[in-house]
User: Fold these one by one.
Assistant:
Number 1:
Amino acid sequence: MRNHPFLDAAFLPAWSTLQAEHIVPDITLAVERAEAAIAAIAGSDLTQLTYASTFLALERATEELNVAWPRWDICKRWLMPRPCAKPTT
């Protein structure tokens, strides 16, 4: 996920790649993917539901957010001098 460093699921993040300008697009993408996955779960055929197609699918739907959000929290607290500052273009 080079274009989306906050979504990179590597155990050890490349902290130098986590920049303020990436957080909004990365979190937005993670939310969009989670919403699509949840919509797919909600639209499932009720007669075909399984643990994997419901509970496990819901767990997977939010994995990217579970990776990105704690990294953002660490960055804004410790690594970025001006968190939430509007990136310059």
Number 2:
Amino acid sequence: MSQAVERSADDVPVRRVPHRSVPQDLLALPPLRAIIRLALPTTGVMLIAATSNVLYTYYVSRLGPEAIAAVSRRPSSRTILALPAVS
């Protein structure tokens, strides 16, 4: 990979590395690999959210069944934020 050397306004050498954009990289990949590369961050976030919900339920369950019922009845912030998109 060659690097072009340019001069800045202060006559200091500046190296510029050719940049490949992410969409071009994804388009160059085989379809299955591109899908997996796009799905990994979302899958990670979903696993973290599921783990968080299990832990949250465990700690609230130590307060009793009424506390679990109260927590399960309230809508989550994601549900509230998604309502305008649905209607």
Number 3:
Amino acid sequence: MTCLPLSLTLGPPSKYTPSFRCNAGPIPHGSIMAFELTVAGGKPQLVGQWTSPDMMVTDSPTVANGMVFATQTGEQTLQAQRLPPGSQRPTMADQPSNTDSPISTHH
């Protein structure tokens, strides 16, 4: 039997996700899912095999010598600041000159 990690989820799995033989509990934030590719009645199908534990923003898994290595970045996926309607986004020029920012606007 060959199982391949084919799916990364960012958030809870869909209600249409198949059941898995092995799982590590609830996965409200995301996971890696492994499926076995089988043929039934002449049609290919994916059969759920296992899920990783709950992970925050998973990276693509790496498979080496049959072992799956998984990482989570924990990255903040919300990239935009929530500003009031009509507000302009702040720029580096808007920062005070005495900031501890590693990016300098002065040469």
Number 4:
Amino acid sequence: MNDYRFQPEQINLKPTDGLVKVLRTDQKIATVLFVAWLVIVLGMAAGYAVSFLISSQALVYFILRKKVDGIEMNEVYEEETEEGDAFGSEPAGSASTAPAASTGAESKPTA
């Protein structure tokens, strides 16, 4: 029984058990892989919980909006701008950007 606690692969948790051994290299690698896998799985679970919370808040907002204002869930207000897009360019149908159409029957000035 005394030979068992001095095997190189054993970790003695109490100093009174004798010589404290360290992990072998393969055990260290396995521990790192296990902890990494555990962090990934728990991180995904936490991410799912956060996304569920945000999605449920949006759904509650839409239900309240329907009950209070009478607006359907799929109705979204979109502000229409006449001046152009957000970058200050003119709209596509404005006169300054439209090309001049040539019909071939242009009037010539008479002299």
